[in-house]
Amino acid sequence: MPRARGAAGRSQRGHTCSGAGLTVEQAYYRLNRLRELGLVTVREEPRRGGRPIKQYRAVSQRFKIPFALTTAETRAALIRQMFTPYLEEWLRSSGRTLSAHPDQTITVYLAGEHLDINQGGWERGPAVNVGTWTTLNLSPETARELQGRMLDLVAWLGRQPPGDTPYTLALLLGEGSARP
């Protein structure tokens, strides 16, 4: 039986794998490993061309995965690998937003290990783009309190009725300096 073909004539399976930067064999190995660990399960098996096509889903939205099971050489590399696509998309989106409002100013404040970038000034106007990177000297108790408040903020936002405009919110807290 012929495989389902995408727009470029490649199999959909091959297209999916190349989109993820994997060969079909690599994807098959990783998927089987995830199944063995109980992290994914077969969601359904619709038939295509008379053959069952397995569709998978994660068993949870949260996982505790041992670092040894990742392909990253260091924990910093793993974090970079996970966060970079999100940061790059936020930068592209912010660039588009800034370009769409050429009449507004961009305010930049840089002092030591503190960087603020804000579109339109510091007054609380329409939510468009705000970015802050800073180093704070905190006690362990204050850091834990801040972490709790950040988690509470995310929980509160999750309880709000959805609006029409998507926004990206990134809350980062880590020990160390914000200086590049």
Descriptive overview:
The protein is α+β, with helices and mostly antiparallel strands. Helices cover 37% and strands 16% of the residues. The chain contains 4 helices and 7 strands; from the N terminus they run ααββββαβββα. A 3-stranded antiparallel β-sheet has the order 5-6-7, with no helix packed on it. A hairpin with a 2-residue loop joins strand 5 and strand 6. It is extended and about 60 Å long. The termini are far apart. The N terminus is likely disordered.
Low-confidence stretches: 1-10
The side-by-side strand order for the widest beta sheet comes to: 5-6-7
How would you sum up the major sheet? Answer: 3 strands, antiparallel
Would you tell me the structural class of the helices and strands?
A: alpha+beta
Mean pLDDT: 80
Query: How big a fraction of the residues is strand?
Result: 15-25%
Distance between the termini: 55 Å
Overall, the morphology is extended
Count of runs of 4 or more consecutive helical residues: 4
The Rg value, from CA coordinates, equals 22 Å
Tell me the helix content: 25-40%
- Give a count of the beta strands, DSSP E runs of length 2 or more: 7
Characteristics of this structure?
two-stranded antiparallel ribbon, alpha+beta, 7 strands, 16% strand, extended, three-stranded antiparallel β-sheet, 180 residues, 4 helices
Produce the secondary structure layout.
Layout: H1 12-19, H2 24-36, E1 40-44, E2 47-48, E3 51-52, E4 55-58, H3 75-100, E5 106-111, E6 114-119, E7 130-133, H4 140-158
